[in-house]
Automatic annotation (TrEMBL):
It comes from Metabacillus halosaccharovorans. This is Sporulation histidine kinase inhibitor Sda. GO terms for molecular function: protein kinase inhibitor activity. The keyword Mitochondrion does not apply. Signal peptide: none annotated.
């Protein structure tokens, strides 16, 4: 599954929401892989970055 139509901000927000509502762990891994592939951030630091965005 590719998330290329999503903007970087939307991808990060989707990851945050998926973690919050505890969706399928495989889906979260797909989001993490896309984040890493885009070179956005280490997934462990994403929540800190999103707090700054919001």
């Amino acid at each position: 599954m590719r998330f290329s139509p999503l903007s970087d901000k939307t991808l990060l927000y989707s990851f945050q929401e998926a973690k919050k509502i505890e969706v399928n762990p495989d889906f979260i891994k797909l989001l993490e892989a896309e984040i890493k592939e885009r070179g956005l951030l280490n997934p462990h630091l994403i929540e800190q970055k999103l707090k700054r965005i919001n």
